[in-house]
Amino acid sequence: MSEYLIAREELEFLLWDWLDLAEDCGDAIDRESADAILDLSARLAASAFLPHYKTADRIEPYQNESGVLALPEIGAALREYAALGLFSASFPPELRGLGLPSLLANASFAQFLAANVSTAAYVMLTTANARLLAAFGNPAQIEQFALPQIEGRWFGTMCLSEPQAGSNLGDVATRAVADGEDALGERYRLTGNKMWISGGDHDLSENIVHLVLAKVAAPGAPPAEGTRGLSLFVVPKILPSGERNDVAVAGLNHKMGYRGTTNCLLNLGEGEGAIGWIVGPPGQGLPQMFKMMNEARIGVALGAAALGYRGYRHALVYARERTQGRPFGAGGGPSQAIIGHPDVRDMLLAAKCYAEGALALVLYCAKLVDRAEEDVEAEALLGLLTPIAKTWASEYGLAANDIAIQVHGGYGYTRDFDVEQLWRDNRLNTIHEGTTGIQALDLVGRKLRDGAALALLRGRIAQTAIAAAALPTLAGHALVLDAWWQRIADAVETLRDAGPGGMAANATALLRAFGHGVVGWQWLDRALLSVDAPEDAFRSGKLWACRYFFERELPKIDAWLRPIAAGSDIGAAVPAEFL
Amino acid sequence: MSEYLIAREELEFLLWDWLDLAEDCGDAIDRESADAILDLSARLAASAFLPHYKTADRIEPYQNESGVLALPEIGAALREYAALGLFSASFPPELRGLGLPSLLANASFAQFLAANVSTAAYVMLTTANARLLAAFGNPAQIEQFALPQIEGRWFGTMCLSEPQAGSNLGDVATRAVADGEDALGERYRLTGNKMWISGGDHDLSENIVHLVLAKVAAPGAPPAEGTRGLSLFVVPKILPSGERNDVAVAGLNHKMGYRGTTNCLLNLGEGEGAIGWIVGPPGQGLPQMFKMMNEARIGVALGAAALGYRGYRHALVYARERTQGRPFGAGGGPSQAIIGHPDVRDMLLAAKCYAEGALALVLYCAKLVDRAEEDVEAEALLGLLTPIAKTWASEYGLAANDIAIQVHGGYGYTRDFDVEQLWRDNRLNTIHEGTTGIQALDLVGRKLRDGAALALLRGRIAQTAIAAAALPTLAGHALVLDAWWQRIADAVETLRDAGPGGMAANATALLRAFGHGVVGWQWLDRALLSVDAPEDAFRSGKLWACRYFFERELPKIDAWLRPIAAGSDIGAAVPAEFL
């Protein structure tokens, strides 16, 4: 178990004390079993995922005539992961899964993301694919394509983007032409180019299952415009017959991070068309994807939080070991550990707020996933908080990684240390699975369109504030939090009346203010659990982090909200030729 | 000339309209000659520096038994640069220099930094070295070591840091033992390890001139503690006799950016001791270095600004070309260039404020360098603004590079585009030549210790505000600027009385507030030049950028100052064991 991964104490605090994992587990899993899962995850992450973190960055995937080849250590780690049944962690027993609640499965998975985000990404893609098939596929498709993924023998991909269709999936041009029916359902021939396909090809698993967004079209006819015709197809690399499907790797994308995760441009149908079976009814591709989108975005957020958290731990260890300089104002004396410098401690507090705050926010969402099935309030809150978690964790996880470099000084930007790679890896997370701008439009244009979800959220915030108001050390924070939320709610109202330009020009600012407001609330909520333990270093740390967030982070909200209150729409108003 | 380098219109606006380059040039250089220098710089940067930008990142320097080998294109570009006499640009004619004012020389050099920061870094190191020798060396040393650098035949280094002595040079342990005297002055034998030596070894120039900070010591005796004994020595790689000096490369640092600039751990004196000649009197090493520090820091700031500027240009070109999505709220229609999205324009405005604001701030300082010789006010302002320029340009240049990635979406994090490399390159700049934390202590502990320099600055700000107050479109900004500066000045007063802990815990926050205040002032100052040109796209762009900075950037100051006003010292107060 590595000191750089997620502290066991942190996970126990979040899962049991803060998020009441017992409720999610019900009778199915007791504390001892949950602890065993966490132990196992920490050990395997440290022994099989962490050791090739830098190697996978240095030795990138490459392509030869047989396809794309990845670092063998990645395959070895994932085989160990599969052998322990962890691909199946969050699937129900009827799908041969361990049946872990989402909260526990995410806590387990966070260790692997912290240890090696690009190796763990294959798991994320595979389980997302299998879950989509399990939700919408027919029994034969589930048997044929989902189960081998749940066992971790086959890996999966999501083929949405195309070179000309990234954020806007309505422009997808991949065509699917009907080609009869067989035991797996209605068969189609697919033709098109899919870009940014993570895990799009590699030699790590026996087969690769692509889930492809395409438009049903009559032979020779153009596909429908917009998103209406979009349907989902399951397109395996190797067909059940054992033959290769008509899916070719047209190129590899070389990224600055996540380098161990192959990323491909795939050509479907260079010959007679790639064979695929439609998943669910035609025209349902987008709603099907959206049903999975919350989870995919929370997965990205979890990776971003885990990267940020690991950066914070590296910085902390380094700051305790590295000696440099004397106390400011002292004439001489021995050189001190740099954690003695207030500026360094200030940076570490910020990184702690970001990293632990992001991890907590994402696990809070994972808890909502567990509740959402039977609790419409949880479902609404999950929808509201998903763009927040995606954005906040990726922006502030990255900020924690940036601080980790700064704390290391010159050593931080060398490849002798891990912190520069953590920073590069994390830079992808504000972009993939929907950029920050897309998250902001989702928040403002969809999740806040009616006030119901916000009212629920404010109800939960009020509960925290009321509890904090009764405690002398936290009562001030409760007042401050309430004041900020009043202003955030005012801004939501203002934007609702602002028209498309004003809304689009301010959505990101509102998202950022909202994110800080949510994380501030959650810091206060965790501080409530810590006030009674002044001698406990871990709990005291939570109180200090909460104080830091209220003193130095929440005031940033003003800069995001002030232009909204003033009716600024400068991004919409500025003529493009003046840029 | 590349569309990604610094626009000629930008430089002309800053140099002639805003900073009155004519004053710096005096009778020595007319506008035509200055224009010719700028033309030449833009052409050479595009033809010789830009083409190997990515190659030098991919093919790193390596070491064999002959020493460190760098990419040949770097040497070829620098030979062209030398052939045009540009190494000598800012040196006076008596040192065989072109005698350009610092302002013009920096504007010229900015193009090379924008085109290829790691190739240009050799120039920066070499001219800084030669300038130090010219200031403090004896005539024989200048003849022997400075002139070949001014000609660009030999390159130079600055050997300050050691593995255990980075920010704190008092811990330097390299020893210099007297070894007689010769025509070059008092000769010493040096023994020690020097870390982070940019350009420390390579095969790009005929010789390498190291300027080494070391402590004079009697044979066998320990060197003095602290900074008192520090002296400066000139230590060539190849001695005037043609023999190799006792300077060995112990290792190369592999960095995430500036990869074309070799960066070495040097061992001095593995044998009998490296031969070096003392520069100036003993014990003057630190004051000598500090005399050059303003310039070195402005050099780093210029590189950071140039990188940010180039990132902005890349984003702008991409946003005009890439089509994706429809206007928010529109049902359909053709896909639009992404610059049509208000969120993208908002990002571009921010990047414009950062990149152009940083470049302007650094050139403002270069102007102060020109004035400082004869104008004590300029000298005081230069001292005050140097930590601001270093920090603001490196933090917000990086922010501009971050935005450039975001505007490119997924393409931004691939190595097919330049923006990810610009971001990696720029990440070094908040660390080398003094971290942000060091700049903050310099500002608070030294530059603001008496109020004289701040009073001068506020006088200049008041001039701008008075002029703006007379114009209906800018009068509001004038009031806002004045209000923020009142608060910044209050925070300076508060910190002066805060004691070492409170001061150290808040110095960085004050530095950031101060930086935004300075850049806001300068945006308003440039807006004054633009109000009369509503049809001019370039000038209108300045007005929009100024408005953006006042609407969306200046409010951030509050979050930095509020904790200071509240007496927060959380970075000093938090016990290290709670982190």
Automatic annotation (TrEMBL), chains A, B:
Residues 74-147 form the Acyl-CoA dehydrogenase/oxidase N-terminal domain. Residues 158-265 form the Acyl-CoA oxidase/dehydrogenase middle domain. Gene3D superfamilies: Acyl-CoA dehydrogenase/oxidase, N-terminal domain, Butyryl-CoA Dehydrogenase, subunit A, domain 2, Butyryl-CoA Dehydrogenase, subunit A, domain 3. Keywords: FAD, Flavoprotein, Oxidoreductase. Residues 283-443 form the Acyl-CoA dehydrogenase/oxidase C-terminal domain. InterPro entries: Acyl-CoA_dh-like_C_dom, Acyl-CoA_Oxase/DH_mid-dom, Acyl-CoA_Oxase/DH_mid-dom_sf, AcylCo_DH-like_C, AcylCo_DH/oxidase_C, AcylCoA_DH/ox_N, AcylCoA_DH/ox_N_sf, AcylCoA_DH/oxidase_NM_dom_sf. Residues 461-569 form the Acetyl-CoA dehydrogenase-like C-terminal domain. The keyword Transcription regulation does not apply. Its cofactor is FAD. The keyword Flavoprotein applies. Belongs to the acyl-CoA dehydrogenase family. This is Acyl-CoA dehydrogenase. It comes from Sphingomonas populi. The lineage of its organism: Bacteria, Pseudomonadati, Pseudomonadota, Alphaproteobacteria, Sphingomonadales.
